[in-house]
Design goal:
The protein has two domains: 236 residues, Malonyl-Coenzyme A Acyl Carrier Protein, domain 2 (3-Layer(aba) Sandwich), CATH 3.40.366.10; 66 residues, Malonyl-CoA ACP transacylase, ACP-binding (Alpha-Beta Plaits), CATH 3.30.70.250. Helix content is 48%, strand content 15%. It has 15 helices and nine strands. β4 and β5 form a beta hairpin. The longest helix has 21 residues. It starts with 5 loop residues before the first helix and ends in a 5-residue tail after the last helix.
Length: 324
């Protein structure tokens, strides 16, 4: 352990991994160029999948990178590369969690599955999710400023026109819904009537809704043939917003996670109640960092996505600065 990073000793740290939607062309480039250990992760992913992940991340276009089966392997590779770099400084987490796809970064961190197996698994997960609902049939929308207790009334109005469900409970004041286009639009309008803002998301399917059942069933067949070990650290899961329990079947958790809501805000509440006081987001953008800050302003929130944010995080950990 590197004793320079005093906060690593004095605090309970959780690593957080972002999900689909945080990606951008060029993500991870600085880390890749400056750290051999990061390049090795990209090379391992490329060997496992049979094509260049660095080329996908750095040289593709937004449309290509945003295809679900491409996004998922690219995001996991970038986040894992950053994970290996931060671990090389002796910084180890007490717990780990991720949003949707990001949960697999947490699973790799927890030692449940080797990265090269995880990236192959994620490729199939992305493909099944992309195939589950034809493009143009379903989508998602973020409702900003809608109290959670008013969600059911909004969804009820939308359901008159088809399937629409709550899919992501990210933080106070932000709920994502997903479903069939007409029903989704009607629910979004109902939310606006209550004073909320509705933002349609650029996604190809209504993730984390019952419309993804076929994808979850297909993915479960892959999981049955995959060895997944018990976590070596505390693993907070999307499905319940709580730590994975000893008697929970992680394969069923991952299966059900595709078609069930993500309770990310509850995950942050679970970890802070357990004494976690430092959250480090590992991956592109700072979306999860903003969710954590909106959920609990008493904790330290850091992120690593490039050289500057890495240096800032190392300095904060080194000094034990407890400011947010």
């Amino acid at each position: 352990m590197d004793l320079r990073y005093r906060r690593n000793i004095l605090s309970k740290i959780s690593f957080l991994f972002p999900g689909q939607g945080a990606q951008y062309v060029g993500m991870g480039r600085e880390i890749y160029e400056n750290y051999q250990i990061a390049r090795e992760v990209f090379e391992e992913a490329s060997r496992a999948l049979g094509y260049s992940i660095s080329d996908l991340c750095f040289n593709s276009d937004e449309e290509t990178l945003s295809k679900t089966e491409n996004t998922q392997v690219a995001m996991l590779t970038v986040s894992t590369a950053i994970l290996k770099v931060i671990e090389s400084y002796g910084i180890k987490p007490y717990a780990a969690a991720g949003l949707s796809l990001g949960e697999y970064g947490a699973i790799v961190t927890a030692g449940c599955i080797p990265f090269k197996e995880a990236v192959k698994l994620i490729k199939k997960r992305g493909r099944y999710m992309q195939q589950a609902v034809p493009e143009g049939v379903g989508s998602m929308a973020a409702l900003l400023g809608l109290p959670e207790e008013e969600l059911e009334e909004v969804l009820k109005k939308g359901r008159k026109f088809g399937i629409v469900e709550g899919s992501n409970f990210n933080c106070k004041g932000q709920i994502v819904i997903g479903g069939e286009i007409k029903a989704l639009n009607e629910a979004a309008e109902a939310a606006k009537e209550k004073g909320a803002k509705a933002v349609l998301l650029k996604v190809s399917a209504p993730f984390h809704t019952s419309m993804l059942k076929e994808a979850s069933d297909k993915f479960y067949e892959e999981l049955k043939n995959t060895e997944i070990k018990k976590p070596e650290i505390k693993l907070c899961i999307n499905l319940t917003g709580e730590y994975l329990k000893e008697d929970q079947d992680i394969k069923k958790v991952l299966r059900d996670g595709i078609k069930s809501p993500v309770y990310f805000m509850k995950e942050i509440e679970t970890m802070t109640a357990d004494g976690v006081d430092t959250f480090i987001e590992l991956g592109p953008s700072k979306i999860l960092s903003s969710f954590v800050k909106k959920t609990n302003r008493q904790v330290m929130v850091l992120n690593v996505e490039d050289a500057a944010s890495l240096n800032n995080t190392l300095e904060k950990l080194k000094g034990g600065n407890s400011s947010c």
